[in-house]
Amino acid sequence: MPNRDFERQISGLENSSNRTFSLIRAMRIDLALFLLLLALTCFGLIVLYSAADQNMSTLFSQIRKFAISYAAMLIIAQIPPRFYQRLSPLFYFTSLCFLIAVLVLGTESKGAQRWIMIPGLPRFQPSEFMKLFMPMMIAWYLAERVLPPNKKYIFATLAMIFIPTLLIAKQPDLGTSILIASSGLFVLFLSGINLRFIFSSIFLALAAAPLLWINMHDYQKLRVLTLLNPERDPHGAGWNIIQSKTAIGSGGFTGKGWLEGTQSQLDFLPESTTDFIIAVLAEEFGWLGVFFLLLLYLGVVARGVQISIEAQNAYNRLLAGSITLTFFVYVFVNIGMVSGILPVVGVPLPLVSVGGTSMLSLFVGFGILMSIQGHKSWLSH
Fold it and tell me: DSSP characters for 316-376?
């Protein structure tokens, strides 16, 4: 009898587990990606609690934003990728109109005009959604043509990338413009263009660097000069990067302990809940904490690449690959600027920094990845 009871219990657990996995599959949830995002979210909230001086209102605000973003991701995952493919041009041109409206009617804050107000809605930043609509548009355009694309289609693609990038750079928002340009260029790269064209483009970009320098704003030039020598103005332009590098270095291998960081807790570290939050993490959790975070990020990128490889048509492959690589650039640029190897361009650390529109756009992208993975059987019929 005891053996039979044990067998029934095991059978009940197996049936329960099977029902759970069936529900996950029915909801188009990619379990590996979902668990990685959940781990990043929980770890991010732990770090944010310390970075925000244990302010519960900041923590609860971030939790609400995560809840909205996760709900959006799950809703997006239910919609077949073919729907996004058909509406990609509409999304792109609508977002382009909003970017033009920002320059004319946008709300200004801290010297930048990046937001727009619609009666009855909170203000939002249209450029954040272009991070998704750009690769969707480029993937739609190239997927309809023979790949790799010829020169005519390459130059048409570059024009579609350049126009919104220029509009965003004029807000000014150099960090977002770089991410958006990258999202479109990744699609072009994944379409199989000739390596000679890629190297030629890099050479032309380097040759145009003096022209870019002339047209940069004074504060943008200052950021580049500060990168090269932050000690030239240690109490002004160089303060942020000097304090962040001090925090990172003082954490050592295991860190000072949660809530024990001096740079963040004593307010030496600026923007500790947004752009420089990884310095808080490095000081309190040390090299091990940063390594753990990077492993989670690497897991998300690896899963995204796998989804892209397994996708069943050109549009899905190009879009999934671009979303994944753009997420990688997000992480690389933030960590690079905080550690002093890239200029400070105002890019938050994904899923860790305080976020609003940027967080929502990220989770919508993850929802599209889940949609591409979860609707594979639907596409094959």
Answer: HHHHHHHHHHHHHHHHHHHHHHHTTSS-----PPTTTS--SHHHHHHHHHHHHHHHHHHTH
Lowest mean pLDDT among 47-56, 76-85, 131-140, 199-208: 199-208
User: Is the preceding peptide bond at 172 cis, omega within 30 degrees of 0?
Assistant: yes
Half-sphere exposure for 56 (CA within 13 Å, toward CB): 0
Question: Could you tell me the sign of the dihedral formed by the alpha carbons of 221, 178, 90, 192, in that order?
Answer: positive
In this structure, what are the phi and psi dihedrals at residue 114, rounded to the nearest 5 degrees?
-125, -10
Q: What is the pLDDT of residues 29-72, one digit of tens each?
A: 899 999 999 999 999 999 999 988 888 999 999 999 999 999 99
Q: In the numeric block, which tokens belong to residue 170?
A: 């004029």
Evaluate whether 148 touches 193 at the Cβ level (below 8 Å). yes
The span from the CA of 322 to the CA of 305, in Å, is: 9
What would the mean pLDDT of 282-310 be, rounded to a whole number?
95
SS3 112: strand
Give which of 117, 109, 190, 180 is closest to 147, Cα–Cα.
Answer: 190
The helices-and-strands tally (H runs, E runs) of the chain is 16, 2
Q: How far apart are CA 55 and CA 50, in angstroms?
A: 8
Distance between CA 184 and CA 364 in Å, rounded? Answer: 17
> Which of the two residues, 222 and 373, has the higher pLDDT score?
373
How deeply is 292 buried, as exposed, middle or buried, from its count of CB atoms within 10 A (0-12, 13-18, 19+)?
A: middle
| Angle at 374 (CA atoms; ends 188, 126), nearest 5 degrees | 50
Instruction: Work out the angle at residue 133's Cα, subtended by the Cα atoms of residues 90 and 212, and round it to the nearest 5 degrees.
Output: 120
Length of the chain: 381
pLDDT of residue 147: 86
* Residue 54 three-state SS: coil
pLDDT at 15 over 70: no
162-189 per-residue burial string, b: 16 or more CB within 10 A, e: under 16: eebbebbbebbbbbbbbbbbbbbbbbbb
- Residue bearing tokens 């759970």: 20
